[in-house]
Amino acid sequence: AATFSSEVTPYTVERIVGRIKPTYIEREFSKSDSPFGTDVPEGFINFAGVDGNNTYISLKRYENNYQLDFEQVSIQGVNKNGNKVNLRYKPGGNPTINDTLFNLRLDQDKDSSIYYLTNSNSNVAEFIGNIPKDIYVAKTILINKPYSNGSTNYLDSFSTNTNFSVPINMNISQTNSVIQDDTADFGISDGDQRKKIQNCQSMDIELQMTNAIALFALSKIDVLDSFNVPLFSLSQLLGNPSDSTISVSRAPVDINGFVNGISKQTYRTTVPKEVIDKILRAGKVAYYTKFYTDQNPTSFIRVVKNDYAKLLGIGKVIYRIRED
Description:
Helices cover 8% and strands 40% of the residues. It contains 4 helices and 18 strands. It has helices at residues 124-129, 191-198, 234-238, 273-280, and strands spanning 15-19, 23-33, 56-61, 68-79, 84-86, 102-106, 112-116, 132-143, 149-153, 158-163, 178-185, 202-211, 216-224, 230-233, 246-248, 263-272, 284-292, 309-316.
């Protein structure tokens, strides 16, 4: 008896040239995290319009030159509250609820293609207005639908990218405003300082609001104990007693809609002994801010994730120590 053995040398197909049968690639799913930044606010912005020249879906190839058909494309945005909005797109205009799945094409003789999103061919304003925390994209790619000659290699890849551009002309009412809330730890732990404050009969408090967003801000600030039980409303003491709010104007913008400065508003008050006693029990400060626009905006504004609104509380203590 004779024994035979053989060994096959590993190989890689580096390039294919010629006609390939129309071929589907397995459906792809991808996710874009925090397109508006990590500290995305809650709520919905009612955009009046978008910049159609800079709001688009782009398709790009890297090596192959076969026609690529992106079929059953789905783009869904999910905001911080879990609300979902699907992008609707119809090239001829007037998209309906049935147009949340659409097809795009990258022709054989092009390295990239751009599909512009406008108010007439999509619901892009509604999609962006949802302020998505995450964007999910699904698509199926068909290679060489017309069965033409072409080439590809094993390193080839394709990409889709959705660009949502502001400046945007938008209108946000106070009743349908963008909400951002936060809770910060607060407390006076230094023993000597607590003793001095315990002897205080009054305290001067100053609060400075700084806004670098091109939206008006209306805030409520509550002081809580360590168990989240409300002690008193700081904004009520500082600002408007009727609705417990304080406000700061929107940041100025340049002719292109970019923020080019900041707005500041300072509030001061003197609090009595009973409030000081509550400050000594404080464990947290809760901020609740509404952002809104002029009710009849006449210019574009650009909101980017590096813009911010900041509340800075500074307490200046005036105290009197009893001799007895």
